Amino acid sequence: MKKFIKFLMLLLGFATFWSLSTLHVQAADNSLEKIKQSGKIVVATSPDYPPYEFQVNKHGENRIAGMDIDVAKQIAKDLHVKLVVKSMKFDSLLVAIETGKADMAIGGINPTNERRQSVDFSDIYYLGGQSFLINKSDSSKFPNQKSLQGKLVGAQTGSLQYNLAKANLANTTVKGMDKTPDLILALKIHKLEAVGVEKPVAKAYASNDNGLAIVPATYKLDKNQVGAAVAFKKNSFALEAAVNKSIKKIKKGNKIDGYLKNAGKDMKLNTVNTSMWNYSDYFAKGVKYTLFISIVSSIFGVLLGITLALMRFTKMKLFHAISLCYVEFVRGTPLMVQVMFVYFGIGSIINISALLSGIIAISLNSGAYVAEIIRGGIDSVAVGQYEAAASLGLSRRDRMRFVVLPQAFKNIWPALGNEFISLVKESSIVSIIGVTDLIYQSNLVRANTYRGIMPIFVTMLLYFVITFILTRILNHYEKKIRSRE
After folding, report:
1. What digits encode the pLDDT tens for the residues 66-107?
2. 277-483: which CATH architecture?
3. Which residues of the chain have pLDDT under 50?
4. Cα dist. 83→72, 103, 171, 273, 386 in Å?
5. Which among 1, 342, 416, 445 is most buried, taking Cβ atoms within 10 Å?
6. What is the rounded distance in angstroms from the CA atom of residue 381 to the CA atom of residue 404?
7. Other beta carbons less than 10 A from residue 245's beta carbon
8. CA 112, CA 121: separation in Å to the nearest integer?
């Protein structure tokens, strides 16, 4: 009996502790109050998934539209705040709300059990179903889902469709890609035999591309995990309750059908004129951002590189070690990881915009490579130059400043030029965090026009023109430097 009483007391104590902890978390929840104080709600999405969300090009003006955007507008209206839409890759959406880059994420996101470990979800606002897209010429070859077993099937990385294909299609190779337009392009050039997408997305692509056909998916699914829901940061109870009220209003008024009709009208706007000239503003904006990021990053990269190179030659062991460790670490990690760390990692502590995060990451990365180039240039200066400068009474600092570095820069100018050209091309990595560079804009054109190859060709041509002109400019100044010797 005593043991039973002790057990009850222990159980009661645990229940009391859990209740107090829950109340404390709820009391500390300021998710809704924070939004109302700021007067805006920031929503993260990936606008390459029609009819859920996509870019609309109307009279030269670009905006994000789609069913999900109308849902977000209703939520913002009910909260009496301004809607701010932040674009990024699909597999970065949940990271964005976890790190405070957005208040909520929307984008046909399925509330799976795995995702619930990291974020919270609203009630499901739309249940669209699953389908496969195939080439219409393969319709007789792939009449149903079963016929796709053992074939090469694609799906968006991190999506429910990817996991479903992996789990349900026996002996099937599932290829993951970040962007739906990439998957559609791979399908059309027969790199894939089918692409798993949600039913509305399949209808959107098939209705705008006569070369595509739909195969229904026959997965046995839990309806609580396959519908579209809004994602929030963990323990955002107040915001979640407010959003659920809006979703209840949307369902009660049967507004989703109207949202889908609006999305259909906007999608037709994009296909009225799919010429690349009609999307010239997209490409022009991409070129502008690419050049801006490259030039600013190269300036800071050179300044950082000079500092790190000089630290390698200092007699202070601490500075030497810091420079060595920095260069080795940066050169040993991918630029993509560095960009994401600055934006989501450091950005979760200090609010940094996507553009500034991209510039910082590329500058830090370039600085490590420039440091090694400059170090090699300094080593290439003959020892006699040091001795001659010392004999004239110049200090160590002045010898480096007036004698060694000027000669070193003459020797390394071609290498620095190559680093700058490489930086122009490598800057495309910032598109993963939603910076509207040339690659990002190209992806939007592909999603809007349902044309896979031509936007890529135009982008490739623009990169060539940029690098060709820059190469000619660098060669011109290299000749001027050599002529002074």
Report:
1. 999 999 999 999 999 999 999 888 888 999 999 888 999 999
2. Orthogonal Bundle (1.10)
3. 1-8, 11-12, 14-27
4. 7, 11, 45, 29, 62
5. 445
6. 7
7. 15
8. 9
